[in-house]
Amino acid sequence: MASYPPPTGASSVPKGFDFSPDSPLRLALSSDQVKFCSEALTLLKEKLRMPKQIAQEFAHLQTSSSENITPFIATQGPLPHTYEDFWEMVIQCRCPVVVMLTRLVDNYKFLKCGDYFQAEDGPREFGNIYITTKWIRTTNTSLVLRNLEVNYKESEERPRSILHIQYPEWPDHGVPKDTFAVREILKRIYTVPPQLGPIVVHCSAGIGRTGTYCTIHNTIQRILVGDMSALDIANTVAIFRSQRIGMVQTLEQYQFCYTAIIAELEDLISDSNGERSQKCAPSWIMDEI
């Protein structure tokens, strides 16, 4: 059944719909719709002349799996009245990593996210949940890494170990000056098995910077398992937007996705070639290395 976008004006939304057993009316197409249909018809007819490619696509659908693709929980930055709910979600969904892409307060002194994690002075409690900080590190790319332990107060189970990664230098509605820090987040999460649970990603509103990171991460992971449909980045963003409205807010953020993905692919290939070179190098070269 076809699905059409709702009318833009609230007053034009119909109260109901009368169904008829009569023959269906012809759909009146605009000139743009005729153009879209013609372009699609040409592409699909060309595809139909390539049965091997269609068979390969179907075979990939049969064998592709989401087991090696990290699921995400995209959310807004927690505020004081949602701290306990946030950590409840982390525990229930067994989330191993939280990626925070915002400061607590921006340069204009506006609150962007509540302080739901800092516990340097000892355990911190949110309702029935407590968190402790095991260690804190700051990287050369301005990432702040925290190893947190989270649990219910009266639980007899071991506390959950959470890696909290904060990138405070990513500007709201904008993009970083370079891709290094964003790609370092990727590199630190590569070895986290997707089966452990979804990764929580948030900024302030939880759509612009959050959607941009999720797009970069998801695209790289799918390429690594041979899913070349990942190259259709517009479709990836569209799927994310169908699940959370507004993911990747600006053109600048959308372009940044391409820049970061290209840089990471080049880095991965370069690292792989370097490893192969060392493996194939004569022993005397290895000694110098």
Automatic annotation (TrEMBL):
<feature type="domain" description="Tyrosine-protein phosphatase">
    <location>
        <begin position="72"/>
        <end position="264"/>
    </location>
</feature>
<dbReference type="InterPro" id="IPR000242">
    <property type="entry name" value="PTP_cat"/>
</dbReference>
<dbReference type="GO" id="GO:0004725">
    <property type="term" value="F:protein tyrosine phosphatase activity"/>
</dbReference>
<dbReference type="InterPro" id="IPR050348">
    <property type="entry name" value="Protein-Tyr_Phosphatase"/>
</dbReference>
<dbReference type="InterPro" id="IPR016130">
    <property type="entry name" value="Tyr_Pase_AS"/>
</dbReference>
<feature type="domain" description="Tyrosine specific protein phosphatases">
    <location>
        <begin position="183"/>
        <end position="255"/>
    </location>
</feature>
<dbReference type="Pfam" id="PF00102">
    <property type="entry name" value="Y_phosphatase"/>
</dbReference>
<protein>
    <recommendedName>
        <fullName>Protein-tyrosine-phosphatase PTP1</fullName>
    </recommendedName>
</protein>
<dbReference type="InterPro" id="IPR000387">
    <property type="entry name" value="Tyr_Pase_dom"/>
</dbReference>
<dbReference type="InterPro" id="IPR029021">
    <property type="entry name" value="Prot-tyrosine_phosphatase-like"/>
</dbReference>
<dbReference type="InterPro" id="IPR003595">
    <property type="entry name" value="Tyr_Pase_cat"/>
</dbReference>
